[in-house]
Amino acid sequence: MRPRPAGHRQSATVAGAVAIALAAAGVAAAIHWAGAARPPAPAPAVAPLDAGGKTRGRTDAPVLIEVYSDFLCSHCADFAVDVEPAIVREFVEPGVARLVYRHFPVVAPESTFLAALAECAADERRFWGFHDAVMRRVARRALRGLADVEAAAQEAGLDFGRLRACEPTPAIRARVDADHQAGERRGVQGTPTIFINDRRIVGNVPIAVIREAVGAAQAR
Amino acid sequence: MSAALAGSGVAVSAYLTVTGLRGAPPVCLAGDCAAVAASRFARFLGLPTAFWGLGLFLVVAVLAVAMARGGVRRVDGPLVFLGLAVFGAAFSAYLLWVQAAVLRAFCAWCLASDLLWAALVVAAAAGLRGR
Question: Whole-angstrom Cα distance, residue B52 to residue B45?
Answer without folding.
Answer: 9
